[in-house]
Specification:
It is globular, with a radius of gyration of 24 Å. The strands form six sheets. Strands 1, 2, 3, 10, 11, 12, 13 and 24 form an eight-stranded mixed β-sheet that branches. Strands 6, 16, 17, 18, 19, 22 and 23 form a seven-stranded antiparallel β-sheet that branches. The protein has a three-stranded mixed β-sheet with strand order 4-5-7. The two termini are 42 Å apart. By secondary structure, the protein is an alpha/beta fold. Helix 10 links the parallel strand 14 and strand 15. Helix 2 packs parallel to helix 17, helix 5 crosses helix 17 and helix 14 packs across helix 16. The structure holds 2-acetamido-2-deoxy-beta-D-glucopyranose (9 copies). InterPro entries: FAD/NAD-bd_sf (IPR036188), GMC_OxRdtase (IPR012132), GMC_OxRdtase_N (IPR000172), GMC_OxRtase_C (IPR007867). Pfam families: GMC_oxred_C (PF05199), GMC_oxred_N (PF00732). GO terms for molecular function: flavin adenine dinucleotide binding; oxidoreductase activity, acting on CH-OH group of donors. This is Glucose-methanol-choline oxidoreductase N-terminal domain-containing protein.
Length: 598
């Protein structure tokens, strides 16, 4: 009898675990939802988790891509460059004049967890001054550095490094939380570049001086990287906020392969229409389904798909909407405009063959297989680190350099870096030459003044045509000059005698580029690409601002019952990686929603 009871209990638990993640709308039990969340990235996963903490709220999360489970390179941190393109939207921009008319990839993930399932996993809250500027721009102290501290703590769960080494001296434990949801850690296997990087930082000092923890609000200097990794495995929004213990909640349903086409108007109040019905399909050729929310729709489709869905729904610039045959329902010319993204350039040096790099892992499949075996059996070894290096330098240009640009400093204040250097022993891509050892630096410019846009030029089929993306790369002279200067800073760092033994010299492309400013500018225009740090296409502004898409509570202006919870609401790109700011803003947004309806 007891055994039967146990068996029934197990079956019941099993059924619950599997009952809440669905592949097909036909399998979802008929339910009246309080909230429908669109998009399973860091915004949507946080909202779905936090709202379903209230057992009285029934929550549905719709994700366009498939489930994230069982995809090895999505679990093994260092193998993220090998994640198949099946889990990508494959977006590209229109020709970019600032990049010699190249059309550029605009990466974003098509899988549960969104871009946290395939990104570089950097844990960076952003500088104090950037948050304080958000507070000023929105007239809401809740967005200040002070205001977000509780939400940082709710998100972060500090975790010891995979190899169990004593990480004292690599971060400041006093500013980290161990009670949140997403795992955070430092390097879990030493890299061959570690001693050289530290020596170069000591040798040069100044802007390269050691900073114990870039997450203190004061990121400037040379630091150890922190990653959203736990026990050697990527911890994405899906693996953390939708972990099995949360998916067991009976009031939370997650539907994958559900691509949202648009929101449907559910009332005709002309001052602020309601859009509580969500239209979606499992296939771009249809058929279309719809589901409605009784309280709110939370749009968390990311900086590219969020404005696309708004425009498809008739929320945007009336002229543009009419030109593609969409009846304009809410006129707002800010939708999709003012896109802000960090441009990136990669620099490569050849490494002395007596030393190690990560290149062999991608050049020698037998070697990689051995390391995968080690990772699978022990959660240890070289694969536990992120693929963007474990040491980095956040830095500012001094006043002399800034004055030479002839423009006002676009940074948020003295704690905000203009750029970052990511140092990686190896190439940043999985497709490099079949032999050779390299050191790469990714130079990411953090304070771009160029702006781009997301718009639509077609409604077929079923509104699923790719949006028209103009990333605006290097449109402004400031961005070009700043990237040029940031590259020079990288060259200065690599000129430290600490590197003499390890580095042979720049590869030919780079050697040619650094001969003159003109050559360097051409190198930048020919090789610059986009980071995944895209924001501001549905900008948050003060209640009384004459532009912007959402108010400081992230409610869409001129609409009832629609909130946006993703990177698109950040009014300017933060001077740092964007995944953690999204976790933070989603935690705060979830609190606001719970206060409103609790
Ligand atoms: C991206 O391209 C891959 C490879 O062609 C494909 O399998 C995948 O379906 C594409 N992604 C989307 C969202 O269409
Ligand atoms: C880019 O395209 C524009 C418009 O076609 C053209 O005027 C310009 O010369 C092109 N730039 C380069 C570098 O080819
Ligand atoms: C880790 O190292 C620090 C500094 O060297 C030391 O004070 C601390 O006791 C060590 N912790 C453990 C658990 O060994
Ligand atoms: C919503 O779906 C139902 C069927 O589930 C359909 O009858 C109805 O027409 C749809 N509503 C809209 C506005 O498309
Ligand atoms: C873009 O942002 C600027 C402020 O940075 C604002 O003045 C302008 O109105 C915005 N444009 C749109 C279309 O929202
Ligand atoms: C590839 O790796 C295996 C395992 O470490 C090693 O035995 C073999 O020599 C390597 N091959 C080359 C070409 O380096
Ligand atoms: C400012 O930075 C530049 C470039 O790194 C450097 O050459 C110059 O000496 C610095 N000036 C001052 C006043 O620190
Ligand atoms: C507009 O849409 C059409 C068809 O969907 C596409 O072929 C074309 O390239 C698009 N135009 C731009 C500027 O992206
Ligand atoms: C490469 O490293 C070895 C071992 O440290 C050293 O003897 C040699 O001089 C280095 N080669 C170069 C070109 O620096």
């Amino acid at each position: 009898m007891a055994l039967l009871y146990l068996l029934l209990l197990l079956l019941h638990r099993y059924a619950l675990v599997w009952a809440t993640l669905f592949e097909n709308i036909q399998d979802v039990p008929p339910t009246e939802y309080d909230f429908v969340v669109i998009g399973g990235g860091p915004g949507g996963c946080v909202a779905a988790n936090r709202l379903s903490e209230n057992v009285n709220f029934k929550v549905l999360l719709l994700e366009a891509g498939p489930s994230n489970t069982g995809i090895l390179p999505m679990e093994i941190p260092l193998l993220s460059p090998q994640i198949p393109s099946r889990y990508e939207w494959n977006s590209t921009t229109i020709p970019q004049p600032g990049a010699n008319n190249r059309t550029l990839a605009f990466p974003h993930a098509f899988v549960l967890g969104g871009s946290t399932s395939h990104n570089g996993m950097t844990y960076n809250r952003g500088p104090k001054d950037d948050w304080d500027r958000y507070a000023r721009l929105t007239d809401d102290q809740g967005w200040s550095w002070e205001g977000i501290q509780t939400f940082i703590a709710k998100n972060e769960r500090w975790t010891p490094p995979a190899d169990g080494h004593n990480a004292s001296g690599q971060f400041d434990p006093s500013i980290h939380s161990t009670s949140g949801i997403t795992s955070v850690t430092v390097e879990g296997f030493p890299l061959p570049t570690d001693p050289f990087g530290l020596k170069a930082s000591k040798e040069l000092g100044g802007i390269f001086s050691f900073n114990l923890d870039y997450n203190s609000g004061h990121p400037l200097g040379f630091s150890w990287a922190q990653f959203t990794i736990g026990h050697g495995t990527r911890d994405s929004a899906a693996t953390s906020y939708l972990a099995p213990k949360f998916l067991q909640r009976q009031n939370l349903h997650v539907l994958v392969n559900a691509r949202v086409s648009r929101l449907l108007q559910t009332s005709s109040y002309s001052d602020a229409p309601e859009f509580l019905r969500v239209e979606f399909a499992h296939d771009i050729n249809g058929p279309l389904f719809n589901v409605s929310a009784t309280k709110e729709v939370i749009l968390s489709a990311g900086s590219i798909n969020t404005p696309q869905i708004l425009l498809n729904s008739g929320i945007g610039d009336s002229k543009v909407l009419s030109s593609v045959g969409i009846p304009p329902l809410v006129h707002n010319p800010s939708v999709g405009q003012n896109l802000s993204v960090h441009p990136v350039v990669q620099l490569v040096w050849t490494v002395n063959s007596s030393f190690q790099t990560n290149d062999e892992i991608f050049q020698n499949q037998t070697f990689q297989d051995l390391l995968v075996k080690e990772w699978t059996e022990t959660s240890q070894g070289p694969l536990v680190n992120g693929a963007v290096g474990t040491q980095r330098i956040y830095f500012r240009f001094n006043d002399t350099v800034l004055a030479s640009f002839g423009e006002k400093d676009p940074s948020a204040g003295p704690t905000s870096p203009h750029a970052i250097l990511l140092i990686q022993p190896g190439l940043f891509s999985s497709t490099g030459p079949s032999t050779g050892k390299f050191l790469s630096i990714l130079v990411i410019m953090h304070t771009p003044t160029s702006r781009g846009s997301i718009t639509i030029n077609s409604t077929a089929p079923h509104f699923f045509a790719p949006p028209v993306i103009d990333g605006g790369i290097l449109k402004s002279q400031f961005d070009l000059l700043a990237l040029r200067e940031a590259i020079k800073t990288a060259l200065t760092f690599m000129s430290a005698s600490a590197w003499d033994e390890y580095i042979v010299g720049p590869i030919p492309d780079l050697a040619a580029a650094i001969q003159s400013d003109d050559a360097l500018d051409q190198y930048i225009r020919n090789s610059a690409s986009y980071s995944e740090h895209v924001v501001s296409t549905a900008s948050m502004t003060a209640n009384n601002a004459d532009y912007g898409v959402v108010d400081p509570d992230l409610l869409v202006k001129g609409v009832t019952g629609l909130r946006i919870v993703d990177a698109s609401i950040l009014p300017l790109v933060p001077a740092g990686q964007t995944q953690v700011p999204v976790y933070i803003l989603a935690e705060r947004a979830s609190s606001l929603v719970k206060e409103r309806w609790g």
